[in-house]
Specification:
By secondary structure, this protein is of the alpha+beta class. Helices cover about 20% and strands about 40% of the residues. The chain has 4 helices and 6 strands; from the N terminus they run βαβββααβαβ. It has a 6-stranded mixed β-sheet. It starts with a strand and ends in a 5-residue tail after the last strand.
Amino acid sequence: MKTNVLISIKPKYVDEILNEKKKFEYRKSIFKREIDKIYIYSTSPEQKIVGYFVYTGYYKETPEIIWQNTKKYSGIDEESYYKYFYKRPYAYAIKIEQINAFRKPIDPQKAFQNFLPPQSYIYLEGDLIE
């Protein structure tokens, strides 16, 4: 069975991803398992799973090098970026490719028993059906 993840992203960044202006998702830590898809949970006020992208890898480097190499498609301002990675030796930039937006976003309260939005990410076994 394929392993996927569900990640929480603020709605303003979700819009940038769906509009293909944001091609990197920044994280302080990365997945420990082999991943197939990354499902996008748009946080409050939307609180829905809006789509997914195919996982094709990530970059790991110092925050300065990651910023220099990804800022054009970061979807975030430089000040917010450096605030997020403050005092972190490494930054992770997940490549966003092959975006698939759901025609009808999924209500996670109906899809999962006792759903709690992931702080960063949670593993999912199998696919969510659109």
